[in-house]
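Notes, Module 5: Reading structure tokens.

Key idea: the token line is not a picture. It is a compressed description, and you learn to read it the same way you learned to read a sequence, by spotting repeated patterns. We will look at two proteins. The first is printed below with its tokens.
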Amino acid sequence: MKAIHSSWRALTALLLTVILVLSLAACGNSNTASTTQAAQTENKTETTEAAEDSQTHLIGYSLNSMDSTMKTMADYFESVAREHGWEPVLLNANGDVATELNNMESLMNMGCEAVVIMGCDTAGSAAAIEELGAAGIPVIIAGRKIEAKEDSYYTYVAGDHHEAGKAQAGYLNGLLEKDPALELNVAFIYGQSGSSSVQQRYEGFESDCLNGQYADRVHLIASQYAEFDTQKAYDITTDMLTSYENINCFVTQSDEQAAGIINAIKAKGGSLDDYIVVSIDCSTTGQSYLKSGELDASVLMAMRQLAVSSADYVEAALNGETVEKTNQVVGYYQLVTPETYVEVMKAAGMEPVA
């Protein structure tokens, strides 16, 4: 026991000695310590200021789906944002307005300074935009018109969707002009119901083809919405081919749907030489069918140009500039065929699929 007490006393004495030495050292070097602390504070301030100066803007992108067309669009959004030195955050709504609203709220909570949205629904997507607008976050509506209150979004940028339908009509009118004996029995497969761009594309086709110069030789046999879905387009085409044996032309509003149409024709044992198939997008899916010759024509969306224009308006919003509420991307839609799609895409600054 005495040995233990002696050990404790020795340890205690040692600790007191160490504390005393440290205290004296601290007192003796108080000026040095103060100088070091000041230098550290100054360095920390300089580092913080430098970080703030180099801080990138967080920009949100809300996409309506992630099919091959929207995947390409997402890639352009992301690459153009990074060219501006921004940090892009891309979220996919999968065609659901409830998911879209949640995504927009997530982008807001992340601290995004501006948001670009390609909406799911003309009316249904308005709530998401108005919520961000109420929070003071500028929203750029891209590609598809959304019926939100004007004061809730910064601007709307897109092409004239009537031009897509007119381009399809122009291709078919060219065939009708070349062959006076040709009559077209058309099955029209729409994209997404509730979308203003879908309706405008149809109106362009209707005015220039169904009611155009060769209207007496163009007959609309059937029409239906496929919601930009390949499987739905496949099923609809299968039913149409069974119900209307005289159909010889399919006009559709996306390459994803064109894929469903082409595969349904092949599954029924039909020859694609007996059908004309005209689409919109010139996506990676569309390019593969243009290359094989199974898709007669598509209409290129200049997606990179839409991404560039959207970024221009994001930058204007960040700079506090005032812009028009509606802005158009000139030449957004261009007809392409198996012979021309590579050249047209390159001219639009887009890289065709090898």
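Here is the second protein, with the sequence above and the tokens below, as before.
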Amino acid sequence: MWTGILYALAAGLMWGLVFVSPLLLPEYPAALQSVGRYLAFGLIALPLAWIDRHALRQLRRADWIEAVKLAAVGNLLYYLCLASAIQRAGAPLPTMIIGTLPVVIAICANLRNARRDGRLPWALLTPSLLLIAAGIACVNRAELMTMEQQATVDVARYVQGALLACGAVVCWTWYPLRNADWLRHHTDRRPRTWATAQGLATLPLALAGYVLLWIFMGASHQPFAMPLGPHPLRFVGLMAAIGLFASWLGTLCWNAASQRLPTALAGQLILFETLAALGYAFALRGQVPGPLTLAGIALLVIGVMWAVRIRPRPVEVLVEG
């Protein structure tokens, strides 16, 4: 179990990087950052696919269809919503909204996967969820107080960012539940193989999206310099780094965690992504978190520590005689 938790921690540290890219590339459309990131992920997956070619040949048509679905929703659509949200509302608000994922996923998993994983007793799970929710509320309040001090705040753009971040939550509530379903039903398959398969499934989707976006921007006479924009080296470097660490290696670590942990618990450990993203955002700002933010982070950590102590209890299945 602790091995699974360490894998989830590694995935969170790498996934937190995706919150930084939209801030470092503010001139780049969110759609271009989404397809660029996953085009890099797909290209990185090609040599890895050669290494795993024997295991990949064992995947059936239904497995590849599932990989395409996971790639479309959990990769492209999720990051499109997230990058758009960050560009409209800044990093803190989307980070906090994404931070509700541990609560949302834990509740969904405890409702739908109790027979498979066992049920985490609500009486024991509720304090953990409340602590996590309180921590998110504290950090969110601190960020809102900071925004209120700014003279120029586009409320409509801010609300758009919040709604897009909610869309990202929907995508990434669906993704880990479906991804865990496949992994738990295919325990003989290696997480690395499944991560590479998702990269391969993402490649044609991202390539098609890149071409369509290039055609659309040319037809609409937008001044943006396609295909690599005004800062090509920074764009390519960031997309390659995020494609390798956040997409492939992060997915590999998350797959390894999903095979070892109950889905309700694994969902709460996505909190590591929120903490990492906050740390990166404050480092980029060159600021130290204030007391309210630190209190919120402490509540989040305590909530996770409480959760990892809970053991699932088997659900009794009544068989009619």
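Summary for the second protein:
- The CA atoms of residues 34 and 80 lie 5 Å apart.
- DSSP finds 15 helices and no strands in the chain.
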